[in-house]
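Narrative of activities, Objective 1.

The group set out to show that a structural description can be obtained from nothing but a protein's sequence at a throughput compatible with the screening campaign. Below is one input-output pair from the validation batch, recorded exactly as produced.
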Amino acid sequence: MHAAYVFDAYGTLFDVHAAVRKHADAVGPDNAALSDVWRTKQLEFTWTRTMMGRYIDFWDITKQALDYAFAKFPSAPPSAKVALLDAYWELDCFPEVPAVLKALKDAGVKTGILSNGSSGMLNAAVKSAGIEDVIDHVISVDRIEKFKALPEVYQMVIDDLRIYPDAVSFQSSNRWDVAAACAFGFRPVWCNRGNQPDEYKDLSPELVLADLNGLIGSDGKPV
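Output recorded for this entry:
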């Protein structure tokens, strides 16, 4: 058991495809492909803007990525954009998330989120999912105006929680995020929800899980 369990938000706790799924009929036949492109460009824009030193917050990036996705799929009516953006503030969390976080909290460990998301987006998502009572810290890159996977992002966890990196179990569904957390010194867990092939084999996670249920042992205690 670790002193703190810190989670990436989008794709790990919250389902990034829930917004498009909710309005699939309005988006049209290319809804699944559009959702994939939206997410891909959302991540790409964080990396390129960090390298350029031209930060804008994650909400603006999310809107720009959606604009690109709609341009990529002309079958999707632009009138659906507003509904998708509104839905992104209230993304569904994955089914196991509330129970896993409660088990961690009951075990007396610290819990937190470290995310590229803006503070407003994260607070809204946490509240919508009803997990505000089981999350101790919500840490946004807004503070330093740089995105993952820079070491400065992961350093915020250490600064806020006042613990050593190897006392942190860090969970992410993004393999690149897991690699960066490993390089920083966290004890990373890859929540490989999509059963993706491994990457960055020199920066391996300590655990690979199909979902977050694997964080809780058969005795009900954190692993």
